TrEMBL record:
The organism of origin for this protein: Saccharopolyspora gloriosae
The keyword S-adenosyl-L-methionine belongs to this UniProt entry's keyword annotation: no
UniProt name for this protein: AraC-like DNA-binding protein
The keyword Phosphoprotein belongs to this UniProt entry's keyword annotation: no
Any Pfam family hit: Cupin_6
Length: 315
């Protein structure tokens, strides 16, 4: 069986990067601008209320919960109990942190956060699949691994053992996977690729398209694989994915082409044949219609970007 979620994770080069956090007790408040498209917060212990622009009601974070901000501009969080005005908290950046190392789960509110980095392809996919403020609960039966992932990640941060920087990066990757798994189980997903991947009845057809994207799949074959009539299959697929099956296949081919052009030196003609296009010109036309530039121009621009970034940093 093709593991489509793993395949997409690799394709969009998703990376979770932990940036900081805090441990405090008593009333507190933390506010600030959000400078990255996708930012996440994990509640290790205690409770917090989080609000952001474009969302009417705050969400209540409990231990094991994760919040993901999708293209938001500001964040306001508050928590703690006790008398007196709330204390302004500024999350500490970088690790190790003496405050986090001395956190007490019995009395402290402990929150860690970071950002989710994606390549341009991933931006379009994941930003489309998530609401402005996604709340993933750690209390559900299906979220056992999510809760465990948060605690394992925090322990690596707190203990600062040999190799902890590497371990934190790996735990952060796994945490993102568990966040998406729990989110799929807990939420009525909007139409898109994530909802399509979560639909068990569509999986046989998706397996075929992902395993052999260059084959000229027809609606009849895909419907038979899913054990549905053509009409039922087409309607269910469009409802889940937001696009017809063959449009999904076309976009999947273009995503694969973008990866091949970024990472290798495959000739455009060979890539066109591999992905099922009748000719190099047919592929180039389809690619430009979807991406906005020709395959060769895309390859050159993507490869020039790191060099241009380095030049700006040196200037």
């Amino acid at each position: 069986m093709v593991d489509q979620l793993s395949e997409i994770f690799e394709l969009v080069e998703v990376r979770g990067l932990l940036s900081g956090g805090f441990a405090t007790r008593g009333p507190w408040v933390a506010s600030g601008a959000v400078e990255t498209p996708l930012k996440f917060f994990a509640m290790v212990s205690g409770r917090a209320r989080v609000r952001t622009d474009g969302v009417d009601e705050p969400i209540e974070l409990q231990p094991g919960d994760v919040a993901i901000l999708n293209n938001r501009s500001w964040l306001h969080a508050e928590g703690g109990t006790g008398d007196g005005p709330p204390r302004e908290i500024s999350p500490e950046e970088g690790f190790p942190s003496p405050h986090l190392s001395g956190a007490d789960f019995g009395t402290d509110d402990v929150l860690i956060g970071g950002r989710i980095d994606l390549n341009p392809t991933g931006d379009a996919l994941l930003l489309q699949a998530l609401p402005p403020l996604a709340h993933v609960r750690g209390s559900g039966v299906s979220a056992t691994n999510l809760r465990g992932g948060i605690y394992r990640l925090f322990e690596e941060v707190r203990q600062d053992r040999m190799g902890s920087a590497f371990a934190v990066r790996q735990h952060c990757q796994l945490l993102l996977l568990e966040v998406l798994r729990a989110y799929v189980d807990q939420t009525e997903l909007p139409p898109g690729w994530l909802k399509a991947l979560a639909d068990e009845r569509l999986r046989p057809a998706l397996d075929l398209m992902h395993a052999d994207p260059g084959k000229p799949w027809g609606l009849e074959e895909l419907a038979q694989a899913a054990a549905m009539s053509r009409t039922t299959f087409a309607e269910r697929f469009r409802t889940a994915a937001g696009t017809p099956p063959l449009t999904y296949l076309h976009r999947w081919r273009i995503l694969l082409a973008q990866r091949a052009l970024r990472d290798g030196d495959t000739r455009v003609g060979s890539l066109a044949t591999e992905l099922g296009y009748a000719s190099e010109s047919a592929f180039s036309t389809a690619f430009k219609r979807e991406v906005g530039e020709s395959p060769l121009r895309y390859r050159q621009r993507i490869r020039d970007e790191p060099r241009a970034r380095t030049d700006r940093q040196r200037a």
